[in-house]
């Protein structure tokens, strides 16, 4: 556990390192319960950090940070009009992507809170935070725990939440991956991606879902492994997305299963993403600012990474046709994300 700088309001922030003793190491900060580093061996056994990020808490708390590695919520993705109705009451949220609400809002979002370290050892860390009633406009006090576990060639992130009043909850991790080594190759366009989904939720203006669920087709048909660059080339002219920024409805349900497989032919690294979430947002970093200064002096930009974000249905609080995302008192929200690595 090391000092990592100062977060919002001058709060002291720390970073913790996990080591599985077999070539994998993870770095987690208590600012936003964020994943700030993940070293994984390639096919020749050479380790490299495969997630983008920054060198200090101040940078993670800065406006230039596009939620790198953060635990995002209360509600991941967008809430249309920055408002929703629940049990007959209309709630107004922070419109941090006007006119919509994105990834939990502004200063009170989970990704900007300094979490408590509840327990830690060489291979795991448990963090907790409280989101008070009214934070970013949400009802109810939400108690959240995040547990990172490293072992067996995988990093697992488990989320648990409880509330004292009904509130929407949809948590995910927003890590930006480049399996060649974050920032080294500068692009994931040569990476190959497979997604275990036959359907997706199309979007319209403002990247908001239309409410329909449609079969995947064209560049969104990732049922067989496909070069990310090929899909981005087809989507680049899309005035809405400009690349991959789409939600896929995963096959199966009721437990943790494979959601996607990402591979880098150059390094040989392969990441299998497993989750019990119903959906997966694939984002090819289209809007990452060109020249964004990252860890160790590396420079990031569009398509230099890919986010694979397991989540509930987007804009569920305003879409009765989608499965709901409301957590009520006495219920427990539990979700798992597992990043399993190998090489070929």
Report what the structure shows.
This protein is mainly beta. The chain has a single domain (2-343), classed as Beta-galactosidase, Chain A, domain 5, CATH 2.70.98.10. Helix content is 3%, strand content 41%. It contains two helices and 29 strands. The chain has a nine-stranded antiparallel β-sheet with strand order 11-12-13-14-29-23-22-17-20. The protein starts with a strand and ends with a strand.
Nearest-angstrom radius of gyration? 19 Å
Question: Which stretches of 5+ consecutive residues score pLDDT under 50?
Answer: none
Strand fraction band? 35-45%
Q: Care to count the β-strands?
A: 29
Shape: globular
CATH topology: Beta-galactosidase, Chain A, domain 5
> Into which percent range does the helicity of residues fall?
under 10%
Mean pLDDT: 95
Instruction: Give the name of the CATH architecture.
Output: Distorted Sandwich
Strand order of the largest sheet: 11-12-13-14-29-23-22-17-20
Task: Give the class-level CATH name.
Answer: Mainly Beta
The domain tally reads: 1
Secondary structure category: mainly beta
Biggest sheet descriptor: 9 strands, antiparallel
Question: Please, how many helices?
Answer: 2
The rounded distance between the terminal residues' Cα atoms is 33 Å
């Amino acid at each position: 556990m090391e000092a990592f700088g100062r977060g919002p309001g001058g709060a002291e922030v720390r970073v913790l390192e996990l080591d599985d003793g077999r070539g994998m190491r993870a770095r987690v900060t208590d600012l936003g319960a964020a994943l700030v580093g993940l070293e994984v061996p390639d096919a020749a056994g050479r380790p490299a950090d495969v997630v983008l990020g920054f060198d200090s808490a101040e940078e993670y708390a800065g406006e230039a940070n596009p939620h790198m590695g953060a635990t995002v919520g209360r509600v991941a993705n967008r809430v249309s009009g920055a408002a929703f109705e629940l049990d007959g009451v209309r709630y107004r949220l922070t419109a941090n992507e006007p006119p919509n609400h994105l990834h939990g809002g502004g200063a009170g979002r989970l990704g900007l809170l300094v979490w408590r370290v509840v327990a830690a050892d060489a291979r795991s860390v448990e963090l907790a935070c409280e989101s008070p009633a009214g934070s970013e406009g949400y009802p109810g006090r939400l108690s959240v725990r995040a547990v990172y576990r490293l072992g067996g060639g995988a990093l697992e992130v488990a989320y648990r939440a409880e509330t004292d009043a009904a509130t929407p909850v949809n948590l995910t991790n927003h890590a930006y991956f480049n399996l060649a080594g974050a920032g080294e190759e500068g692009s994931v366009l040569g990476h190959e991606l497979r997604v275990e989904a036959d359907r997706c939720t199309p979007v319209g203006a403002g990247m908001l879902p239309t409410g329909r669920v449609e079969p995947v087709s064209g560049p969104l048909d990732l049922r067989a492994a496909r070069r990310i660059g090929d899909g981005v080339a087809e989507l680049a002219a899309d005035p809405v997305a400009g690349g991959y920024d789409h939600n896929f409805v995963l096959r199966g349900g009721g437990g943790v299963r494979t959601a996607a497989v990402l591979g880098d032919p150059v390094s040989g690294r392969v990441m299998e993403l497993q989750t019990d979430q119903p959906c997966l947002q694939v984002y090819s970093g289209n809007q990452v600012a060109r020249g964004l200064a990252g860890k160790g002096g590396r420079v990031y930009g569009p398509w230099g990474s890919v986010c694979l974000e397991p989540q509930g249905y987007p804009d569920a609080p305003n879409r009765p046709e989608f499965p709901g995302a409301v957590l009520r008192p006495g219920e427990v929200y539990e979700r798992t994300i597992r990043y399993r690595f190998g090489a070929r």
